[in-house]
Amino acid sequence: MSLPALPLADALARGPVVLDGGLSNQLEVQGCDLSDALWSARLLADGPHEIVAAHRAYVRAGARVLITAGYQASFEGFALRGFSRAEGAGLFRRSVALAREAAGPTPVHVAASVGPYGAVQADGGEYRGRYGLTVRELERFHRPRIEALAEAAPDVLALETVPDMDEAEALLRAAEGTGLPVWLSYTVAGDRTRAGQPLAEAFDLLAGHDQVVAAGVNCCAPRDAADAVALAAARTGKPVAVYPNSGECWDADGHRWHGAVSFDPGATAGWAAHGARLLGGCCRVGPALVARLAAALRPPPDRDPGHPG
């Protein structure tokens, strides 16, 4: 097992870094049932080897940042499955350990996933925001999750799929004092957060936080990514994280995806030119697309100086 040669902030200063893709879709390809309210986090207890296998598929595809399986995990959710508080904390820590195990000798950064309150409720609330909770209440919910993850010493906290500014503020407060860098990525529709706030204002919230090493968007339509990258770079002055969905649409009533894949790995070079430094995919973006993304971002081999043209 090896650790990254550079802190993530230093790696981002050198150029684009490839993120993984959707963990859940790879687990489903492997035959895992994710119908439980804990989603992929259930496998932290019931199938950790499946999580390791899914992470390894992305490492082979060229990902150099692995996002852990704790997105939908919560102490409350673990308690409903019969786990004690201490056992729940152990499962949070295990999510980081499994990603480390999967990396093997490859230098990979492990990003501990911290999903939004709406995701943990398993009711689609992450695509609406505005839960009726105050910033302080949201901070109180997120802090124990973040503290448990911090005990496992991930390389970065991924505060991801954040639907509104209130939750962004709560997550940043909860992460203070951990000593860990964070990235924060909103889920958006057009130029607004899912809660309807102007995305420019949402990014302004992140600009003054030294702990934030990257800001951006995820779990959005690919068509929204390019403008969001430029806006995030301009408003925050930070490296940008961008990992959209495949472009397919989720039918909540039929519990299925439909439509065409519009994620274009070739477009990521353009995103990188506008400030994107963490680039990958979210829902329905699997290892094959991540491999193409990694190839698109790979610098061309040095031309033989003795060979014309």
In words, what does this structure look like?
With 309 residues, the chain is α/β, with parallel strands linked by helices. It contains 13 helices and 12 strands. The strands form 3 sheets. Strands 1-12-9-8-5-4-3-2 form an 8-stranded parallel sheet. A two-stranded antiparallel sheet has the order 6-7. Helix 4 packs parallel to helix 6, helix 6 (85-103) crosses helix 8 and helix 8 packs across helix 9 (165-175). The protein is globular and about 50 Å long. The relative contact order is 0.14. Mean pLDDT is 92; it is low at 303-309.
Distance between the termini: 42 Å
Which structural category do the helix and sheet elements fall into?
A: alpha/beta
Rg from C-alpha positions? 18 Å
Secondary structure: helix percent: 40-55%
Summarize the structure.
Helices cover 41% and strands 16% of the residues.
Write a concise keyword list for the protein shown above.
13 helices, disordered C terminus, two-stranded antiparallel ribbon, single chain, 309 residues, alpha/beta, eight-stranded parallel beta sheet
Which SSEs are present, and which pair or pack?
Blueprint: H1 8-14, E1 17-18, H2 23-29, H3 43-46, H4 48-61, E2 65-67, H5 75-80, H6 85-103, E3 109-114, H7 117-121, H8 135-150, E4 156-162, H9 165-175, E5 182-186, E6 188-189, E7 192-193, H10 199-207, E8 212-218, H11 225-236, E9 240-243, E10 249-251, E11 256-258, H12 268-273, E12 276-279, H13 287-297
Parallel strand pairs: 1-12, 2-3, 3-4, 4-5, 5-8, 8-9, 9-12
Antiparallel strand pairs: 6-7, 10-11
